[in-house]
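Obj.: predict assembly geometry.
Materials: sequence records (below).
Method: joint structure prediction, all chains together.
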Amino acid sequence: MTKSQTMGLFFGVFALGLAVAAGGAQAAGECAQGKTLVEGKLTIATGNPAYYPWVVDDKPEDGKGFEAAVAYAVADRMGFAREDVVWTRSTFDEAIQPGAKNFDFNLQQYSITPEREQVVDFSVPYYSAAMAVLVRKPSVEAGARPELASLKALKWGVMAGTTAQPVVTEIIAPQSDPLLYDDNTNVTEAMKAGQIDAAIFDLPTALYLAAVVLDDGVVLGQFPADRADNPDQFGLLMPEGSALRTCVDEALEALKADGTLAAIEAEWLQEATGVPVIE
Amino acid sequence: MNRRQTYEARQRRRAVLIASVSTACTLAALILLVPLAPGWPRVQQSFFSADIFVRTFPRLLEAFLVDVAIFAWSAPMIALVGLIVALCRSTRAPGLFPLRLFAMLYVDIFRGVPVVLVIYLIGFGIPGLGLPRPWNSPYIWGTVALVLTYSAYVAEILRSGIESVHPSQRAAGISLGLSEGDVMRFVVLPQAVRRVVPANMNMLIALQKDVALLSFIGPVEILRQAGVFKSLLANFTPYVVAAVIFLAVTVPATRYADYLLNRERDARS
Amino acid sequence: MRAADERAGGPKLALSGVVKRFGQHTVLDGVDLDIARGEMVCLIGPSGSGKSTLLRCINLLEPVDEGFVRLDGVDISEPGLDPGPIRRRIGIVFQSFNLFPHMSALANVTLAPRRVLGLSAAEAEPAAEALFARFNLAQHMRKYPDQLSGGQQQRVAIIRALAMQPEVMLFDEITSALDPELVGEVLDVLRQLRADGMTMVIATHEMSFAREAADRVCFIDDGRIAEEGPPAAIFTAPRQERTRAFLRTVLR
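Observations (raw structure tokens):
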């Protein structure tokens, strides 16, 4: 055996060893290996503050609330232990600005739209929300009914930049221009001040606000899912071109297939029976 | 032209040339170098999309009219309230001490509290007491909040102007038999107001930008509309459009104010 | 009222026992001074001796603490009296900052006639223009104060006071802030006023003017009138050592 042959054999064995080591990690089912912001950790962003029923008490780390529970379920399927999940907070702007992101995925009821998909990546949907109309009792007593003609006459408020806004401007097309607000709190404050009669939220949020935040809140009705081009579907938001996307999608599909997602939904999101559909 | 004038003209031409060349070099460097940065296509797509610029411009211009309207009716009210508060603070009569105290507290409080908080408090709070429509309009109470806050600043500026007028001017007016009120109106205030024009111009420019804060309580003005477009289109170009519209107004306005000030100064010296 | 005083034949202006304090500091310490109708009295004395304060007390710009100021025999120093109508009868010109810089010379002069006497512009302006013409300032009438020389400014200030047709004029070191070559034109105005029979009290450092033009000179020191008399007597044969010392320093 010549010297060079010896060397070749040595390198061959070394290379084989490396391949086995790598294969071993792959075999453990770690799809997310090397793809997360911090190796071995999954960094998840939510809103600041995060609202009920999506996150309970603004403490996503407790795993309570629909989105908090979904986040932990997805993390679990991707092979992250509970303690390997790191929470962070972000605004919508931080999520879509160019440049590096400070999260692996971000969930705060982001509706999936074609425009948004040009600059960020979305997972497959984890929830399909119906849009619902929130009013206060005086409006109902004044004759507001879940019919478009009746809704047009109301003074509308809506959270700016959400997919609820086109529902107001394009479907309801009210007689006076809607007022726009930064967050749920401001919308409900304006309702309390009598500056607006009605507002649009996704159904779970509307039910929560009617039951807890407003003394005399009423969910007047909900829009049928086929009202808009596609129903409002929430997706996990990721940086554009995220390598993690396939892993996240796989995890979500698995959660849907085995009924875990439906169970979480049943646990945290109220049954929306009895809310009339707006014709 | 004498020797000195020839020399100065040559110096001026040289200065202009140097300034032009250095400006051109800086601009060229920016235009040529920035696009070489690896992230440039992303940034360009997010902030300077020509397509989105064209699509959002008309609606944003329309929303800007809301800012202009709020500004137009706020500014005179601020001038009036600011003047009244400044006069209250400048009264000398001992019997008017409560007025002076009130004006002092008012100025301290409204200068110390963030504008946004005042807008929330008054914009949501007062209508929440149960005012009927249209008297609970966010336009009304948002304007009240802006007027209260800005009047405090303007009052302070005016007061400093009033105090900067030499005491002999007051003595001269009084000794002619003018009443205290006439001395203030014809002698002190005209001089005070002139002296604080630059400071008040800055307040006007700040006000024009702070009008956008009214969007927190509902009105859809240009920044809110830009934010809406930003969210719907997932693109920041609408903010650039808004900035361009703002600049189109503020830059000529400040230049015009400078021109007026210079003209007055030149006319009198 | 004037007729009554002329009958009485008393002084135009009479100060008796005037005391003025600023906090602990006594600035005027019992001043007695009678000024006859048409008399020109010059006040001389070191800086801080109380000359300015005395003038300001006569004009009611400062309230007196003790003593009386009488104009045509009427006590004008009574607390609570409306000073407006009295100030109208007593004009004053200061050392500096007299004119309102945001108004033309003409507007400076017509402001008080219009606001205080209630004249219209059409009524006030011809009278003001006549004054400008009389004091050779007609061509400067439309200018602003900062376009006028210091001497011209002081002359306009005098015209402004005269426009109220005062019975007494007070001058508080009106030439002290002027360049020397501008002093003469201002003093000429005072001479002209004297010829017209104006009653005047002049605080001044211009000793040669006081000597030549005054009917009487008062040397004020430490809040009192230390010595008074005809200028010839005061300047050539002062009786008080303090007066001599002061004159030595200023006439050196």
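Conclusions so far: Chain A has two domains: 6-128+234-271, 131-227.
To do: check interface contacts against the pulldown list.
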